Amino acid sequence: MSEPVEQIPLSRELLALMRHASEIAAALREPFVSVRTLLLALLDDPQLGAALADALPREKLEGYALPEDAGARLTASRVPEPHLRPGERAAMLRFNTLAFKTPDGARSVWLSREAHTVWMEGAKRVGEGEAYLPKHLAYGIAADAVRAPGVLAQLRIEPGAVTDAIFGLEKERKNEKP
Description:
The chain is 50% helix and 3% strand.
């Protein structure tokens, strides 16, 4: 018997944030949702944006231009199905990342490889029985910045300041409890 698949419910707030990130990516004419577009969406989040504003200068994020080869290097690719018989087609296509619809539902935008890594890091921070919230995605960005600060450094943003601001969110939340 196979092991049960772990499933984490996505909160409405996170889905709205991801749709907004897809909209930002489309507006910036990026072929995917990047860490930059996730950060811009977090800045617009009503719960987290104000706490992150000092560490994430919007003008730096908006002014960054992706390298020309980024579209080819960072987009989704198909995951092969290892146990199909010759000639058998997969029930559905699987990819190495996720896609989210823009708010109008007209377009799907894939997560870049780095954004997918951040997404997975955030998912690891969701507690048992909790829904995946925007704060978990922020924690995923912070965890990834500790492991691989290059993405934030490419954006000319101080990885330590971002990490401190994101982890400060949890401290603030704990201090608000009676």
